[in-house]
Amino acid sequence: MEAIGQFIPLILIFGIMYFLLIRPQQKKVKDHQAMVAAVRRGDEVVTQGGLIGKVVKVKDNNELDVELAEGVKVRVVQSTLAQVVSKTEPVESK
């Protein structure tokens, strides 16, 4: 019985760590993955390197073509986006 009593504080510490650190981090990762999956042409994005640009093309292999300035396009790995600054409305198909 005493052995179980000694493990109770460790179990409580693990429970607190889970709810304060692990669970919020998992939610943050899930939200980031959803944001990256929803990127479309025309969205204004910020990369983790701090570059701000407009998505010109979404490629199949998790890459984006981002226009940083007029005539300056770079290829960016989709998962390196830090945030989407402004979303565009979906293009209506005719």
Which bin fits the share of residues in helices?
25-40%
Spatial order of strands in the largest sheet: 4-3-2-1-5
At the fold tier of CATH, the topology name is SH3 type barrels
The computed structural class is alpha+beta
Give the gist of this structure.
By secondary structure, this protein is an alpha+beta fold. It is built from 1 helix and 5 strands, in the order H-E-E-E-E-E.
Structure commentary:
By secondary structure, the chain is of the alpha+beta class. It has a single domain, classed as SH3 type barrels, CATH 2.30.30. The chain has one helix spanning 2-37, and strands at residues 44-47, 52-58, 63-69, 72-77, 81-86. A 5-stranded antiparallel sheet has the order 4-3-2-1-5, with helices on one face. The termini are far apart. The model has no long low-confidence stretch (mean pLDDT 89).
Blueprint of the fold:
Layout: H1 2-37, E1 44-47, E2 52-58, E3 63-69, E4 72-77, E5 81-86
Antiparallel strand pairs: 1-2, 1-5, 2-3, 3-4
Organism: Cognatishimia activa
GO cellular component, one term: plasma membrane
Subunit structure: Part of the SecDF-YidC-YajC translocase complex. The SecDF-YidC-YajC translocase forms a supercomplex with SecYEG, called the holo-translocon (HTL).
What brief labels describe this structure?
94 residues; five-stranded antiparallel β-sheet; translocation; 32% strand; Sec translocon accessory complex subunit YajC; Preprotein_translocase_YajC; rod-shaped; alpha+beta; transmembrane; SH3 type barrels; transport
